[in-house]
Specification:
The structure holds 2 protein chains of 2 kinds.
Chain A: H1 15-25, H2 29-40, H3 51-58, H4 74-83, H5 90-104
Chain B: E1 11-17, E2 30-35, E3 41-46, E4 50-56, E5 70-77, E6 82-84, E7 89-91, E8 97-100, E9 108-113, E10 118-131, E11 155-171, E12 181-184, E13 190-194, E14 198-203, E15 206-215, E16 228-233, E17 240-245, E18 250-254, E19 266-268, H1 281-285, E20 289-292, E21 298-302, E22 306-311, E23 320-323, H2 332-337, E24 347-349, E25 355-359, E26 364-369, E27 375-379, E28 396-397, E29 407-408, E30 420-423, E31 429-434, E32 437-443
The chains are: A mainly alpha, B mainly beta.
């Protein structure tokens, strides 16, 4: 756990010594952080790793009316809301998506010289699969 | 090799892909990086649902100092955003994982998945076109059969290489929750997909059925205490797989013992000192990634602050624990407030299993040499991006006195997180995803 510290100022404590000092003071860093958090959010639940976080994870992406248990802190409710409800319903979502698509559509690619419509296409006739609307900048 | 400390770091910059914009579009954020079995192909997936595949160039005799560079081979839109009307659920197009299939013919195959749907993609090359069909004109129009008076054999002409990607299988509607892992079995016929509560087994040829092999959903959701965070098949034993949980445990299952592997064969958990337990303990113990070693003897897990190596023969505790950024333990309160404590870092082995790598914040990534027990912190940045420039080891200062080259914990940029890294299966070449940029580093030649 302690990083090699021979190159550093010999007067500084090594990681191990530091930990001993902290233990002597009776405060582990994690506990000190916990105390800070509880000071900011006094009614934080006793069992944080339990249902609240997990339910948030399972509910990701769900739109619509979601009821939150009263035991959740306002901050937790806000965090859950930030990954969820943005649209009232699917119609609202589709309208927003349509607006986004209109902004993003670039000009169409070059036309192929193949004639279509008067014969049944075979796999060789089909144009190459349509490239993505906006190409990744990694490929640029 | 890790080269911690003086003497010159053996890793040097090779390439960087992606835009230099300050404003990063969300779609450009890289969400997965994976080398194929030979290392000749490197695939990336992003939040916009796109896959970009790079191919390694043949080594050039006139440029002996550089190993083959990776250049764009193919790019395609793998997944599109969807809306599930029945559940009022928005399904992101973000590619969560890409896994290559072992190559069996000239074409390459990979599986890519978003939260709900897995797709098998075939990437094939076409470098010839045919002319002189009997029944069709050159523009594709069918010829009137009565006008055809002679037979000819079509001739193949070379053409510019075209790389085509086509979806060959779509494995949909098998996951109620969000898919976090896919893993190809060593039998090359089946693969598993895991979501928060269930793991399914698929056959690569069959898309309308999959077998549920793990189900940890409680009868009453109020009793939910842990979720599945990652899963992987054993590299050689096709009946064995592992899955990790949000409580820091790993279960190894043997599909020979029963059809539904709800009862594990082995249970790996490190005993915790109850006196050191805090509000954050369970959150930071959640395993974000699990990877078998190439040998199949060990597995590695990544939790928020450390990487642990486990011997499959010993369930009671890991054989190695490597601290990634222990200095963050005294910052957990703010990391909880800005949600960084929920970041899911991945980890990877090198080809010989002698070293492991994982990412951190401030575009730092860490490498641990298991033989020499040395570790090094490196940075993916545009500043150290000159060709073949050696990477300088970084140091984070935790104490009061900061030396000249060190960076203090409070100056770390928590928006620059390296969640995804990959190591070439044979050579010392690594790919590091830094938000929207892909860095490729190699070890020094000469």
């Amino acid at each position: 756990m302690s990083q090699k510290q021979e190159e550093e100022n010999p007067a500084e404590e090594t990681g191990e010594e530091k930990q001993d000092t902290q233990e002597k003071e009776g405060i582990l860093p994690e506990r000190a952080e916990e105390a800070k958090l509880k000071a900011k959010y006094p009614s934080l639940g006793q069992k944080p790793g339990g249902s609240d976080f997990l339910m948030k994870r399972l509910q990701k992406g769900v739109r619509g009316i979601v009821s939150y248990p009263l035991s959740l802190e306002p901050k937790e409710v806000l965090r859950m809301k930030s990954v969820e409800q943005k649209y009232f319903d699917s119609g609202d979502y589709n309208m927003a998506k349509a607006k986004m698509k209109n902004k993003q559509l670039p000009s169409a690619g070059p036309d192929k010289n193949l004639v279509t419509g008067d014969h049944i296409p075979t796999p060789q006739d089909l144009p190459q699969r349509k490239s993505s609307l906006v190409t990744s900048k990694l490929a640029g | 090799f890790a080269g911690a400390g003086g003497g010159g770091c053996p890793w040097c910059f090779s390439q960087v892909k992606g835009a230099i914009d300050e404003d990063v579009a969300e779609a450009d954020i890289i969400s997965t990086v994976e080398f194929n079995y030979s290392g000749d192909l490197l695939a990336t997936g992003d939040k916009g649902g796109r896959v970009v595949i790079f191919q390694r160039e043949q080594e050039n005799k006139s440029r002996p100092h550089s190993r083959g560079e990776y250049n764009v081979y193919s790019t395609f839109q793998s997944h599109e955003p969807e809306f599930d009307y029945l559940k009022s659920l928005e399904i992101e197009e973000k590619i969560n994982k890409i896994r290559w299939l072992p190559q069996q013919n000239a074409a390459h195959f990979l599986l890519s998945t978003n939260d709900k749907t897995i797709k098998l993609w075939k990437i094939s090359e076409r470098d010839k076109r045919a002319e002189g069909y009997n029944l069709k004109d050159e523009d594709g129009r069918l010829r009137d059969p009565f006008r055809i008076t002679a037979l000819r054999v079509h001739v193949a002409f070379p053409m510019d290489l075209m790389v085509e990607a086509s979806p060959r299988r779509i494995f949909a509607n098998a996951h109620t929750y969000h898919i976090n892992s896919i893993s190809v079995n060593s039998d090359h016929e089946t693969y598993l997909s895991a979501d928060d509560l269930r793991i399914n087994l698929w056959h690569l040829e069959i898309t309308d059925r999959s077998f549920n092999i793990v189900d940890i959903k409680p009868a009453n959701m109020e009793e939910l205490t842990e979720v599945i965070t990652a899963a992987e098949f054993h590299p050689h034993q096709c009946n064995v797989f592992v899955y990790s949980s949000s409580k820091g445990t790993i279960r190894l299952c043997d599909m020979r013992s029963s059809a539904l592997c709800d009862r594990h064969s082995k249970f790996f958990e490190e005993p915790e000192d109850p006196s050191s337990r805090s509000f954050f303990s369970e959150i930071i113990s959640s395993i974000s990634d699990v990877k078998f070693s190439h040998s199949g003897r060990y597995m590695m897990t990544r939790d928020y602050l450390s990487v642990k190596v486990w011997d499959l023969n010993m369930e009671s505790r890991p054989v190695e624990t490597h601290q990634v950024h222990e200095y963050l333990r005294s910052k957990l309160c703010s990391l909880y407030e800005n949600d960084c404590i929920f970041d899911k870092f991945e980890c990877c082995w090198n080809g010989s299993d002698s070293a492991i790598m994982t990412g951190s914040y401030n575009n730092f990534f860490r490498m641990f040499d298991r033989d020499t027990r040395r570790d090094v912190t490196l940075e993916a940045s545009r500043e150290s991006s000159k060709p073949r420039a050696s990477l300088k080891p970084r140091k984070v200062c935790t104490g009061g006195k900061r030396r000249k080259d060190e960076i203090s914990v409070d100056s770390l940029d928590f928006n620059k997180k390296i969640l995804h890294t990959a190591w070439h299966p044979v050579d010392n070449v690594i790919a590091v995803a830094a938000t929207n940029n892909l860095y490729i580093f190699q070890d020094k030649i000469n």
